[in-house]
Every structure is written in C-alpha cells, then in structure tokens.
Fold this sequence. Notes:
- This protein is of the alpha/beta class.
- The chain has two domains: 35 residues, no CATH class; 251 residues, Vaccinia Virus protein VP39 (Rossmann fold, 3-Layer(aba) Sandwich), CATH 3.40.50.150.
- Strand 7 and strand 8 form a beta hairpin.
- The N and C termini lie far apart (50 Å).
Amino acid sequence: MPPPSNNPKRDDIRAKIAxxxxxxxxxxxxxxxxxxxxxxxxxAKPGKRPPMGIMTTTLWEYPSQHYDDHLGRKSQGSxxxxxxxxxxxxxxxxxxxxxxxxxxxxxxxxxxxxxxVCKDLGRKxxxxxxxxxRPQITHADARELPMPDETxxxxxxxxxxxxxxxxxxxxxxxxxxxxxxxxxDDDVMMGHAYYESMDMxxxxxxxxxxxxxxxxxxVSDSFKKHKGKxxxxxxxxxxxLFAIMREYFEPIDIISVVRHNQKLQRGNWHKxxxxxNFFLRGFNYMFIMKKPS
Length: 293
Ligand SMILES: C[S@@+](CC[C@H](N)C(=O)[O-])C[C@H]1O[C@@H](n2cnc3c(N)ncnc32)[C@H](O)[C@@H]1O
C-alpha cells in the first residue's frame, strides 16, 4: 500500500482497490460467485478444456487451440496447418454476431477452421484461399473474391502477418510481402506492398458484406530480429490494419487474445528476449468492425 496522501477521498479509493485485488467481488458488496464462467481468462487452466461460453471482457484466453464441439469433434481445422486460427475465438465471434443459417465467409480459410465452426453452429460457411487444404474451400485470391456484392452476414479473416510463415509457392500469397520492407520511391510507409494488398482484401470484405454486418480480423504485430545483431524491426501490423479498416468500417471493439504458442514455452527464446532487449508476442488482436447500415 502506498503511504497515505493528504487527500482522504483518494486514500479511500486506494483502500477499496487494494481490497478488491485481495478479494475480487468484495468491492461491490457481493460475494464472488461460486458459479464460474467457464471461459473467463482468469480461470483458464492449462491443459483443461472448459465448456464454451460467451466471453465478456476484452481479454480472451482459452487453454487450447480447439474446443469440444456439440458434434463430438475435438478439433476444428487442422492443428498441422502452420498458422491455423484458434477455433474457439471464431466461435466467440459467430455466437455474438451471427444467427443460425447466416452466411459466414473466410477469404483466407487455410485449413478450414471457420468452416468447421460454422458446421458446429449451423451457419453456412464459405471459404477461399490460394492454398486450399480441402475441397470445400474455393481456390481464389482474397483481393478478388468470386462472390456477389452484399451477400455475407459475417466475415472472419486471419491474414499472414508479414513473411512469418511460408504458406505456398503462389506468388500472389500476401505472406510473401514483407511488412518491414524499406520505403522506395513513392512509398508512404515501410511494407507498402503488404499494406496495399491488405487494403485490397479489406475493400473486398466491404464489398461482399451486407450493410450493418460485422467482421473480425485476427492478427499479430511482428518483430524481425536482424541476424547477428542485437537490433531488430518492430512492425505494428495490428495498428496499421486497424487504421485501414477504419476507412471502411465502424470500429466495434478491440480484443486481446492471449497466445499459447508452443514457441513461447521455450526457455531460450525468453533468455534471448531478455538479453537482447526485445519482446516476444504475447497476444493477438481480434478487431471487430461493422459495415455501416
Ligand atoms: C493465417 S493463415 C489462415 C489460417 C486459417 N484461418 C486456418 O485456420 O487454417 C493465412 C492464409 O492466407 C492465405 N493467403 C495468403 N495470401 C492470400 C491471398 N492473396 N488470397 C487468399 N488467401 C491468401 C494463405 O494461403 C494462408 O492459408
């Protein structure tokens, strides 16, 4: 506790905060409820899969990439596909922003995680990708989707975060564009080609979404270490993409999704981050936007 100030009101607030930290729920006078919300981040126990329930804060955490769905399946999409999205996070979005029978589009569907969550929840899933991993996903460039205007009730997208994963040999793959590429000639920012392509993808999402419908974009910032040096380049991909999306959509909220990447368990990564003074990525953004009605 900090020493008392000469402001009794402030001291009172500090005492209440200290009490709340020691005993959550006490401040309101209500005892903490025994009945926990199974998916609250604070209660997520590693290795255990709590039943799914709507998360109510902007900090989302779940101890597994997948959830046990009502069809009895224990995974959605493929755990072997590098860069697959956490299915439980897509579940959260679909529960809030769609209804049974709605059309949900994933323009970069990869291993089909979104399609599996749609099947579980009775939504009509449509997936596109340049590197489709199953026949239900249509081979298409997300910058030019073979879909009519204003026909999607929701769009989920998890794009490449710069060049961190080699998805395919397709030259059109946005994962080949470096978000830290130095500026050239008329470029207005580093990584110009990456952001220009993502702007085209976001414009396509705007075109296919029905007015008043929502979208979720899941992304992480990136840090590229310079080989053999103590320095590196930070790429604020989340904030840049958020700025682009604001040109098209109304922002609804920004969620921080705790990462449980296995690489984060490696002690040598933490040692390097400490010794070389950089940060490992601990969360992804889930940006939720709405197309104006
Ligand atoms: C992060 S992964 C998506 C993972 C997917 N949500 C899943 O759970 O499996 C990014 C995907 O974007 C795809 N991609 C990259 N550039 C693309 C483009 N121009 N058009 C369509 N898909 C693209 C890649 O092939 C990759 O599958």
